[in-house]
Design brief:
mainly alpha, 2 domains
Length: 148
C-alpha cells in the first residue's frame, strides 16, 4: 500500500482553501456573460481553476508515496519578512535609493552563503536600477533621497 505524501497534500488542500476564499470574496460581484463580462467573471473563474487544480493534485498526492514534512528554517523567514517591513517603513522617510539598499542588505542577511561585500555591490546596483526604472523611466512620484 502506498503512503500519502503529506506535505504535498497539505499544500494542495491549502490551495483549495485559498480558491474557496477567493470565490467567496468575489461572490458579491456580478459575473455577467462571456460577451459582457462583469467584475466577478475573472476572479470567480480563477478561483474555480485554482480549486480544481488543488483537487486534482491532492488526489495525486494521496498516491505519490510518503514524504516527511521539511524542517522550517527560521532565519530566512525573519530576515525576508523584516526586509518587507523595512521597505514599507523606510520608503516615505528615506527615499527609494536608501530604502533599496537597506532592503537588499537585510534580505541578504537571510543566508549564510551571501558575502557582505557582494551584498553591498548588489544593493548599490539594484538601488540604481530601481531609481532608473521607477522614478526616471516610469515617472512614479517617489523621492530618490530623504526629503529635507
Amino acid at each position: 500500500m502506498t503512503r500519502i505524501n503529506a506535505p504535498d497534500l497539505a499544500f494542495w488542500l491549502f490551495l483549495i482553501a485559498v480558491g474557496a476564499f477567493s470565490y467567496w470574496l468575489a461572490s458579491d460581484l456580478a459575473v455577467g456573460s462571456t460577451t459582457h463580462m462583469g467584475p466577478g467573471y475573472v476572479p470567480r473563474g480563477l478561483a474555480i481553476i485554482i480549486m480544481l487544480f488543488g483537487a486534482v493534485m491532492s488526489v495525486r498526492a494521496l498516491f505519490a508515496g510518503g514524504a516527511p514534512f521539511p524542517t522550517v528554517v527560521i532565519r530566512p523567514l525573519i530576515f525576508v519578512g523584516a526586509s518587507v517591513a523595512i521597505f514599507a517603513l523606510l520608503l516615505p522617510i528615506a527615499g527609494l535609493a536608501l530604502t533599496s539598499v537597506a532592503v537588499v542588505l537585510c534580505a541578504g542577511a537571510a543566508s549564510h552563503d551571501v558575502k557582505f561585500r557582494e551584498n553591498i555591490l548588489l544593493a548599490l546596483g539594484l538601488s540604481a536600477f530601481a531609481v532608473a526604472l521607477f522614478i526616471l523611466a516610469l515617472g512614479l512620484p517617489l523621492s530618490i533621497w530623504p526629503p529635507r
